Amino acid sequence: MSVSHTTTNDAGGRRGGGRASRVGVALYLRQVIAELRKVVRPTRNELITYTIAALIFVAVVMAFVFLLDLLFGKLVLWVFSAG
What we know:
The protein is built from two helices and no strands. By secondary structure, it is mostly helical. The longest helix is centred in the last third of the chain and has 38 residues.
């Protein structure tokens, strides 16, 4: 079984610093801006709906964790105070 090793180069396949790294940064920034233009922002109603849904979900999870904590706390007290 043989293992091959590959090396990576910066933008344009050139090695070393200089202009190639600046071109890579410029290309990266152009791509980031292009992707940000594709982002669809939610409407006000969607934002309110999603926020309420997230808050309800968090409240439900908090209640569940609280009940588990209460149950395990009473269980621990029962186990260690029985002796």
